[in-house]
Design a protein that fits this description.
Layout lengths: L3 E4 L12 E5 L5 E4 L3 E3 L1 E6 L1 E3 L5 E3 L8 E4 L4 E4 L4 E2 L10 E6 L2 E4 L9 E12 L5 E2 L14 E7 L4 E3 L4 E3 L2 E6 L2 E3 L5 E3 L4 E6 L3 E2 L13 E4 L5 E2 L4 E3 L3 E3 L5 E2 L6 E3 L1
Parallel strand pairs: 1-3, 2-5, 3-6, 4-7, 5-8, 6-9, 7-10, 8-11, 9-12, 11-13, 12-13, 13-15, 14-16, 15-17, 15-18, 16-19, 17-20, 18-21, 21-23, 22-24, 23-26, 24-27, 25-28
Length: 259
Amino acid sequence: GNSRNVTSSGEWGANPPSWKIEFALSSGQTATLNTAFKAGYVTITSGTLDILNNDLRVDVGSAGVGTLTISTGATLRVGSGNVQRTGTSSSTNHFGTLTLDGTLTYTSTSVGAIGAGTISFSGSVEYLAAGNQTLVTKGGNSGGTNASTYTNLKLSGSGTKTLGSNTSVNGTLTLAGTASLSLGSFTLSYGSASTLEYNGSSAQTTTDIEFPSSAGPKNLTISNPLGVSFHNSRTIEGNVKVNDGATINIPASKTLTVQ
């Protein structure tokens, strides 16, 4: 149905574990949680679930059990809240499986943890805050596994987006807005069908960080109408696509080789 507050202050603080809940908002509509929320099996079928800065606790009463599913076309929107089993710190503070076929967005410069034993990011994850963000990890006290493999990863808004663990992108890595990428102390790798897309809101220049001289993306897409300039010569083994209205600038001293 339509947008609504699902919880208000003081509600749902001690939900019984193991129960099941489905959020099925109409397309374009949002269900908002104004408190922490606990259930054993959570499915977001359609629309958007916004947990703001609250914890979404997937809890069946023991570690490694329970599921969170975000279906194709649905969105989970997270501020600084954690997605984990309980509200306490513990190395067993993780649920069973997070399956993302839709979209997961992080809106806060403070990114909470995901504590899940298995994480499948088959959909899209976007970090869109106006400021620096560190990509989500299991945190120091969540247990489970790090969210290190993305299908589609979009860095937008502004500021620097820093890897929180060794990260691989098998689909499309998009640099949008004025956001930039930092590896921190970790590595970025690309899958065999990967694409690097530049779609900024101001002119962009490639860097070694997201576009290394070797082991880089398979394909390249330029979507920025304000222009993308090459910082160095590069080789693409797949396809190069320049979308309508976009501009690519290769200085006279540089080359783009497509093979």
